[in-house]
Amino acid sequence: MKTRIAVLADHASLSIDHKLNIMGIFTALHAPQAPVVHPQMKLVTQFEFDASEAGQRPLRVTLIDADGRELFGISATVTIQATHNGHPALLNQIVDLSQLAFPAFGDYEFRILIDDEIAAEIPLIVAPIKPPAQPQN
To answer: What domains are defined for the chain?
Structure first.
């Protein structure tokens, strides 16, 4: 398995012909105060699998804080389709995260685990909005 894409974005979708569309990729959130509740974001991944890796696989997405505590987690089973042309199979995943709360400013990380192994890590900084600099007289 190979990770091809792992990002946070404002919007993502799959077209009818399975093209992955991503808009508004970001690595930081800024807010006036903590806790910070983000209204909606997309966690977008694309993984590549060899033909020998076809079948069902457990997938888990977690949100980890700077102290290593898990704040959020979801699990699913994904099916990797075998290809008949010798090309690798691609697995596109879009996880819709609504009203996700970050209890404090700091560093966070989304981890995607497949077969209980870390397949991707996506860092996110949650920081205070800095007031504009005051002019010096």
So the answer is: 2-128 (2.60.40.1930)
